[in-house]
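Retro notes (design track)

What went well: tokenization of the new backbones is finally stable.
What didn't: we kept losing track of which sequence belonged to which structure.
Fix going forward: every design gets posted as structure first, then sequence, in one message. First example under the new rule, 293 residues:
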């Protein structure tokens, strides 16, 4: 059964949408604010107002209305917009915490979270403008990569002002190209990022753990990779680490008993790591249910 909108409200919605299409954001905002007076409990109207303020570069108001929308009912897109508003207001720690809550193994968000984590650790001589440029370059590099433009992505990543973030982002890009030569390059960049991190004596264990895992997973020597991952598994509790270890066991054709034992230990991560499920399914398919080796 369809619900008919109040004719006056329906007319205002049409007018507001016309203003949006014409990019008359101020008029659209005023119209949507009138609509919220009649419909104060509809989260989507506050979300639209937040988006309009965001597109108008008024990030303080955008942050406010995205927050108001979340009080009435949230979704991932809304929370991302709130996080991006906080980034533009240089509230990096708050943005990082928000994105960490909603990230579901999204490479784009994972890299952004790591960059935010690093920016809050970088020396104070970085100005807010420099941090903003670093973030924008980092986001653009990952955007280009996600749209199948790896050469452009690599070029932009080289331009990032922070060498630590530049090397880390280059490592992420090459690791996701997923061929032997690129994986070797990824390992080189992750090692360079780790060396800079340790020399700077930064104190961000979340990033440190992530880069240690990345260095181990991109090591092309299988035996060295297994040893490094086993060592890290005693120190860090992270689904990505266990996923990398399982992948290594499968690629090195380890005994079925060892793989099955690892899978049993990883049951608690199945919901958090969709890639893990794909690896297990692929291995089970290749080995006829795990009986090949």
């Amino acid at each position: 059964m369809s619900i008919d909108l109040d004719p006056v409200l329906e007319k205002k919605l049409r007018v507001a949408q016309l203003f949006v299409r014409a990019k008359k954001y101020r008029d659209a905002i005023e119209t949507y604010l009138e609509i919220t007076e009649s419909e104060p409990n509809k989260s989507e109207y506050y979300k639209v107002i937040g988006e309009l303020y965001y597109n108008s570069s008024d990030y303080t108001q955008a942050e406010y209305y995205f927050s108001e929308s979340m009080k009435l009912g949230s979704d991932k897109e809304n929370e991302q917009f709130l996080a991006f508003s906080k980034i533009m207001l240089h509230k990096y720690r708050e943005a990082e915490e928000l994105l960490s809550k909603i990230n579901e193994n999204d490479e784009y968000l994972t890299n952004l979270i790591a960059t935010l984590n690093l920016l809050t650790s970088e020396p104070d001589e970085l100005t807010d403008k420099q941090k903003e440029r670093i973030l924008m370059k980092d986001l653009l590099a990952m955007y280009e990569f996600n749209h199948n433009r790896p050469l452009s992505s690599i070029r932009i990543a080289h331009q990032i002002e922070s060498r630590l973030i530049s090397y880390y982002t280059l490592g992420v890009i090459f690791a996701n190209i997923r061929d032997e030569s690129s994986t070797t390059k990824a390992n080189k960049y992750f090692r360079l990022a780790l060396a800079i991190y340790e020399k700077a004596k930064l104190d961000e264990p979340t990033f440190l753990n992530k880069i240690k895992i990345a260095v181990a997973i991109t090591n092309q020597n299988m035996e060295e990779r297994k040893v490094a991952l086993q060592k890290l598994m005693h120190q860090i509790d992270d689904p990505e680490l266990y996923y990398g270890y399982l992948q290594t066991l499968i690629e090195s054709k380890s005994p079925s008993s060892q793989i099955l034992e690892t899978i049993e230990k990883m049951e608690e991560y199945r919901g958090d790591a969709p890639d893990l499920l794909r690896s297990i399914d692929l291995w089970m398919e290749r080995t006829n249910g795990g009986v090949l080796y």
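Added context from the reviewer: Residues 213 and 232 are 7 Å apart (CA to CA).
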